[in-house]
């Protein structure tokens, strides 16, 4: 009781000093009679020296928001996060692809870009031009998205120029698979990869045919050879066997189809992997409609997947959700390209632009910590690899062509 009386007396004395001297307890001038410089009301905070004199059991409680009312968000930063979008807009061969990426990036930023500012940095094809543009962008930006060309990404990866968090839009030449992680610290590879896609198809086929023997059909194009090699490498790694069969284009393709027909009659495999486009795949399916057939994005019949298109019903495809699951909630929130008749490859690059912004945004907001995004190019997980280097893992959408539509294999996706 005596302690409480002494405390009250000291409080009264301090308040008298305040009213006489016109100063707050912390030593700052009072703003006038309309404002209390110190208070012991339980809904406000008293200055630290006064709180220190109070018994902990009777210290004021902080004010609480009304029930069912969320706490106010933290104030936005006054300075936006600066992103440089490094694209070959001046390239005679890549300008169209660069524009598709730019349009997708801006579509993503329009929806989720609060607190961010982007500048497009145009380059040509020469690696020196790209490296010089990167150096300038690194001075003026907080994070860099690009380059796009595989050769430019390889030149940047082989240099010591990476000084900012950098989201590159292609897999560097010669760094597919596991070796793609051997890039400078701070560089994150988000480019679409035909090899990664083929390996995922192999995993899918192995789950459905745990003891299956595959026949790999491949065309002569470089992308087809890369896809076939990636599927085969993963298929063998999983403990399966396979054979390859070349299906060339043109007149040679007709003779190959006859040879393939005989091969399938004599020694039918358990499944087919088609490193072919949809045009080359149709005559193959006419021979082997009963065999399970798997393919990647190039085998996608596209917007003309009508029920009367022969030979494609039942084909199992792995492709971007943006292409095969347009009604998925994670896809529908972004606008489609203005050119609705552009090739599917340009649609894929547009989708890559959307996800490139989203990945750059998360990198900036999470300060380099791992994260996951339900993206328009697939499920994206950015994880810490060896030595803490961040790596992106993409899982595309698995569908089956049914009656001119794409039926998702994973109903949740």
TrEMBL record:
Source domain of life: Bacteria
Signal peptide stretch: 1-26
Composition bias, Pro residues: 62-77
Keywords: Membrane, Signal
PANTHER family: PENICILLIN-BINDING PROTEIN ACTIVATOR LPOA
One Pfam family it belongs to: LppC
Record's protein name: Penicillin-binding protein activator
Start and end residues of each stretch annotated as Disordered: 57-77
């Amino acid at each position: 009781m005596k302690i409480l009386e002494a405390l009250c007396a000291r409080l009264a004395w301090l308040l008298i000093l305040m009213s006489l001297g016109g100063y707050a307890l912390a030593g700052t001038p009072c703003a006038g009679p309309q404002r209390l410089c110190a208070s012991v009301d339980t809904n406000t905070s008293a200055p630290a020296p006064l709180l220190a004199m109070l018994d902990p059991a009777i210290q004021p409680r902080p004010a609480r928001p009304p029930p069912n009312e969320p706490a106010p968000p933290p104030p936005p930063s006054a300075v936006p996060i600066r992103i440089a979008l490094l694209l070959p807009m001046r390239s005679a061969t890549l300008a169209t692809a660069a524009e598709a990426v730019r349009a997708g990036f801006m579509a993503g930023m329009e929806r989720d870009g609060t607190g961010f500012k982007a500048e497009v940095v145009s380059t040509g094809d020469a690696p020196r031009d790209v490296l010089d543009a990167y150096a300038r962008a690194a001075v003026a930006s907080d994070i860099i998205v690009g380059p796009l060309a595989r050769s430019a990404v390889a030149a940047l990866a082989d240099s010591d120029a990476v000084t900012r968090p950098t989201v590159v839009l292609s897999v560097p030449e010669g760094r597919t698979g596991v070796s793609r992680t051997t890039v400078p610290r701070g560089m994150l590879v988000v480019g679409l990869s035909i090899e990664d896609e083929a390996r995922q198809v192999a995993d899918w086929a192995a789950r459905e045919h745990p003891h299956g023997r595959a026949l790999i059909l491949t065309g002569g194009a470089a992308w087809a050879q890369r896809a076939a090699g990636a599927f085969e490498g993963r298929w063998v790694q999983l403990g399966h066997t396979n054979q390859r069969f070349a299906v060339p284009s043109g007149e040679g393709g007709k003779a190959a189809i006859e040879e393939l027909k005989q091969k399938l009659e004599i020694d039918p495999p358990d499944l087919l992997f088609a490193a072919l486009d949809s045009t080359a795949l149709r005559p193959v399916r006419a021979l082997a409609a009963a065999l399970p057939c798997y393919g990647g994005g190039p085998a996608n019949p596209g917007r003309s997947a009508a029920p009367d298109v022969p030979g494609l019903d039942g084909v199992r495809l792995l492709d971007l959700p943006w292409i095969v699951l347009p009604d998925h909630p994670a896809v529908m929130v972004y606008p489609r390209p203005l050119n609705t008749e552009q090739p599917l490859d340009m649609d894929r690059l547009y989708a890559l632009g959307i996800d490139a912004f989203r990945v750059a945004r998360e990198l900036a907001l999470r300060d380099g910590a791992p994260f996951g995004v339900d993206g328009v190019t697939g499920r994206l997980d950015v994880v810490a690899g060896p030595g803490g280097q961040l790596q992106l893992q993409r899982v595309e959408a698995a569908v089956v062509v049914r009656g001119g539509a794409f039926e998702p294999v994973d109903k949740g996706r």
